[in-house]
Write a structure and sequence with these properties.
alpha/beta; Spore Coat Polysaccharide Biosynthesis Protein SpsA, Chain A; seven-stranded mixed β-sheet; two-stranded antiparallel ribbon
């Protein structure tokens, strides 16, 4: 028996335990009363027992990237990131819509607004970064031939791009041919993109994605340039980069730990969560747009220093 929608996480052995916190806070604070699914990469059934005992569905992802790395950052990303592409697999057509979350998020408020979108939806990349950012955020890693290969792509590299840490995917029409297509794209681009699966999703949904409000993928720590002291508006706080919320040095570790401690019993309680305040949602969207130039200026300075300090 399946519900209409599912919240999906992608994990390997390194991230399996952290998924418990996301499940707990999405149910108790995000008002999620739909299904849960783990897309697992090389994890045994026994290690998934905690989740299956609580009714979480398990989908075992198979590896499909077999090429050797030539250059770029593809060699330091774990293979599990490509398991996100299984969100387009026909298995998920049993649900009308999927909400995907990275494991380094903390859900603070009701997330059901994400289900109001009819088409694929995600948040535009930090600082409004363009599509080229998914391939060349740091010139230190790239050769001229690599840059030439990127610029030969049949897409407008100055188009807007989105972050894949939070996504809403209309999955009812998932097909095998669609999945085969995105896998083929991933194999062709392997080693070409700095943010590998993120680049693939951006090209696959090029020109046909909706932008969700900032609060649903709030980069508070990363987006230092937005003038606010605390992320009180955040619906989904995305703590990308380091430290991760499960690390004691994170300023959000205590909040993460409290959620994690509630995981064992979270399904014994009804779903709950505060509804986001529309005024705050709109205000933060405006602030993120108004001050992104400050972040862009800071990034330009960082990239310039990296370029002149590199071993080129």
């Amino acid at each position: 028996m399946y519900k209409d929608h599912a919240l999906v996480l992608v994990v390997d052995n390194n991230y399996l335990e952290y998924a418990k916190q996301v499940i707990a806070c999405s149910r108790l604070q995000g008002h999620w009363n739909e299904d849960y699914v783990l897309i697992t990469h090389e994890i045994s059934d026994e290690k998934c027992r905690w989740f299956t005992d609580r009714g979480v569905h398990i989908f075992k992802a198979k590896s499909f990237i077999n090429k050797s790395v030539k250059e770029n950052k593809a060699d330091v990303w774990p293979e599990v990131v490509y398991a996100k592409l299984y969100l387009l697999h026909p298995y998920f057509a049993r649900w009308k819509k999927l909400v995907y979350l990275d494991t380094d998020v903390i859900v603070r408020k009701d997330i059901r607004h994400l289900l109001s979108y009819e088409n694929f939806a995600a948040r535009e990349e930090t600082m409004g970064q363009k599509l080229i950012y998914q391939f060349i955020p740091d010139l230190k890693y790239l050769s001229k031939s690599h840059k030439d290969a990127i610029h030969s792509l049949p897409h407008n590299l100055m188009a807007s791009s989105f972050n894949v840490g939070v996504m809403m995917i209309p999955s009812a029409n998932n097909t095998q041919s669609q999945f085969d297509h995105i896998v083929e794209m991933a194999e062709k681009m392997y080693g070409l993109a700095y943010f590998p699966e993120q680049a693939v999703f951006n090209l696959f949904y090029f020109g046909r994605w909706k932008n969700i409000p900032y609060v649903y993928n709030d980069f508070f720590v990363h987006d230092w340039f937005i003038p606010r002291k605390t992320p009180v508006e955040a619906v989904i706080l995305h703590l990308m980069g380091n430290p991760k919320p499960w690390q004691e040095e994170s300023p959000f570790h205590e909040e993460w730990k409290l959620n994690y401690q509630k995981a064992n019993d979270c399904f014994n309680h009804p779903p709950g969560g505060e509804k986001p305040d529309e005024k705050s949602v709109k205000k933060l969207d405006k602030l993120s747009r108004r001050f992104r130039w400050v972040g862009q200026l800071g990034r330009t300075w960082w990239k310039t220093k990296r370029f002149f300090n590199s071993d080129k």
